[in-house]
Amino acid sequence: MLVYVLFDYCRNIKRIIFYSLIKPTINEKGEKEMNVIAPATALQIAGRAGRYASQFIEGEVTTFSANDLPLLQKLLNTPVEPILVCYMPYCKVLVNLRHELVVRLLDCNGV
What we know:
Layout: H1 2-10, E1 15-18, E2 22-26, E3 32-36, H2 39-46, E4 60-63, H3 69-77, H4 91-108
Parallel strand pairs: 1-4
Antiparallel strand pairs: 2-3
Helix pairs in contact: 2-3
């Protein structure tokens, strides 16, 4: 099954290499800006390396360019605001979402 293969493949990542720490964004004026990724984004991506109960319990994170390494270290050591509230949708919303996903999956497969 494709989902299992992707999951199995993704959890056995030993090393993450950031090619760039810059992300292009569009501002309110419609102009392109180049911004450093948020610390939470860096942590989320870096967290893919090494997982409990995987082939690599401890992961490695680095940058393609040695010049970016100090910035990556700063991003990974920046405290991230904790999530204080998390809203859970009603059961009926989840059931409707599940139904919609199944219908779309069947449409994609020509069933």
